Amino acid sequence: MNTTPVANAREINSLMARYGVKFGIYKNGTFKEQLFPFDAIPRIIKHEDFQKIEKGLIQRVDALNMFLYDIYHDKKIVKDGVVPEDFIYMSKNYMPECEGIDPSKKIYSHISGIDLVEGKDDEWYILEDNLRIPSGASYPLIARELTRIASPKTFEQNNIVDNRNYAQMLREAMDYCNCGGINAILTPGRYNAAYFEHSYLAERTGAALVQSHELFIENNILYHRDYSGKKNRVGALYRRISDEYLDPLSFNPESLIGIPGLMDTYRAGNLAIINAPGNGVADDKGAYYFVPKMIKYYLNEEPILNNAPTYLPFYPDDQKYVLENIRKLVIKDVAEAGGYGVMFGADLSEERLEEMIHLIKTEPRRWIAQEIIDFKDLPILEEDGTQIMRKADLRAFVIAGETTKVWASGLTRFSRNPDSFVVNSSQGGGFKDTWVLSR
Questions:
Q1: What is the pTM of this model?
Q2: Chain centroid to CA 230: how far?
Q3: For burial by CB atoms within 10 Å, which of 35, 227, 228, 431 has the most?
């Protein structure tokens, strides 16, 4: 099978720079924008492997959507003792402001970014669920587009599922949930870390790219005033800002990037917010522990895809195991994201180890611990054309609309550090295209 020619790597990255394929991060109070390094050797997923991944992800996201509706309504899963009540209400991401709200079509997570790794046993393991504002789909889209420019024959010579339907899938989900009006993508603006993606997806889906100062509410209806001064009703708002900044009247009163009164409009059923506010209670790293139980509870099915073996210090038996085996586990702060707050017990100094033991004992809800999955390395192209092996994960994108669908592509991220399992772009990682074979 032919793969992307190694000789095209520099040309594709040059095109990335030319088209402004970047991401930004804030560090030490300074905004820094940088290119997201692209590796021209694709990850290849066999057709039959993807079929299993697809079924497992649909099952998982359907259960998570049912969990979110339940938690903000009848709370049956808590009443039946499957998930502890204290565990939900102690979550920093549980939002009482969302209690009793019926989102359009009862969908909370319209776009789910599920992070997986392929173990050396050839099994795929779920590492994390991202149900708030998961980013990254635009990068494999633009990479495939630019590869076609650099190497036109690549996709003629290989049996690869075409990934250009992502925007159509997203638009169909937005249309399905739309409460009357245009589709819009809300961005904080040019200096947001994912602004490239916001603008790219707006262009591809035909949605209006809007900022908060262009939006206003009249009679519990959200409107956008365009460049000509025309007033357009918004029926579906794909927001790319965090919950706490969404509405200064309901959440953080100091927010300058939200829309005052937005939650009242949402509560009245006049607007679909994509993804729904309050989703963080389900993608908390601690909630991850309970997802297999959610699948059994709501769907009466066994999970198709496995979690990494996980322990909750919240439970005394799990805490005992974690403290006795901390050197061989990875410890994660449930409130952190982007690769931050991840500590490998084997790498901790004695002083830091004692500090972590104290924190786990005094703040057990704050931490989870996992067995280290020795996941597969993928070949990475060096500047001189040689290949090296690096750890890589896969962020799969699941779109929930009239039906739940998995995009036959995804964002494969890799570590550029030979000693690191952390692949996040904010930690200096790069990305590759993901080829799903059509047969």
A1: 0.92
A2: 34
A3: 431
